[in-house]
Amino acid sequence: MNYLTYLPVWDKLDKIQQNKLLSSAVVRSIHKGKMLHNGSADCTGLILVLSGQLRTFATSEDGREITLYRLFERDICLFSASCIMNSIQFDITVTAEKDTEFLLIPSDIYKEIMEISAPLANYTSEIMASRFSDVMWLVEQVMWKSFDKRLADFLLNEANIEGTNTLKITHEAIGNHLGNPREVVTRMLKYFTNEGLVSLSRGTIEIKNKDGLAKITMR
């Protein structure tokens, strides 16, 4: 199967450009918990997710993590190929949250075609603008939204992603997603428990009252 047809601009490329991408792109897989890309110096290439789930995050000098965005089926990661954009570098890490299969397009090939193909260049700019929007949204959330709202919103989104109200996730992992220490997460989850919103067990959080969590996000 030609997964490159997932690119919206595929039909706008000429045959030479299409063949160059076809001959260079490779399907790879990565197991849950493994690292796919690490830092701005690691120009992995453009990643097109075929199945599974990836997480992109930034790490502070003291080792604290915060999730920037996640990638699902047919999502594209350009930050893993940031070297294709002159003077723009992104020091992010990409790891697999689930066993993931992806199409990898080498950075040099993609850049070569992008420099002569207006449709691909415009598409690349649109993706980058969308990712910057994701990051700016995150900054606004961290700066202006209280932690109880952010945590409630995270739990609801996680339940939607996993398709279940029983979440297999640790307090530390939630802290890594939200950029907060584990102790802060634990205190707020205990408050949610006392309010009858969730119940806690080792490595598991069960959502008991979705409506209650939703009300917190809208305060």
Question: Which terms summarize this structure?
Answer:
219 residues, elongated, Jelly Rolls, alpha+beta, four-stranded antiparallel beta sheet, Arc Repressor Mutant, subunit A, 2 domains, 41% helix, 7 helices, 11 strands
Q: What is the helical fraction, as a range of percent?
A: 40-55%
Provide the structure class: alpha+beta
Main beta-sheet strand count, sense and barrel state: 4 strands, antiparallel
Note the run of SSEs as H and E. Answer: HEEEEEEEEHHHEHHEEH
Low-confidence stretches: none
Question: What is the topology, as strand order, of the major beta sheet?
Answer: 1-8-3-6
Can you count the helices? 7
Report how far the terminal alpha carbons are from each other: 48 Å
Counting structural domains, the number is 2
The first-level CATH class name of the largest domain: Mainly Beta
Number of strands: 11
What coarse outline follows from CA principal-axis ratios? elongated
Architecture per CATH nomenclature, i.e. the level-2 architecture of the largest domain: Sandwich
The average pLDDT value, as a whole number, equals: 92
Q: Compute the CA-based radius of gyration.
A: 19 Å
CATH superfamily of the largest domain: Jelly Rolls
Q: Which band does the percent of strand residues land in?
A: 15-25%
Q: What is the CATH T-level topology of the largest domain? A: Jelly Rolls
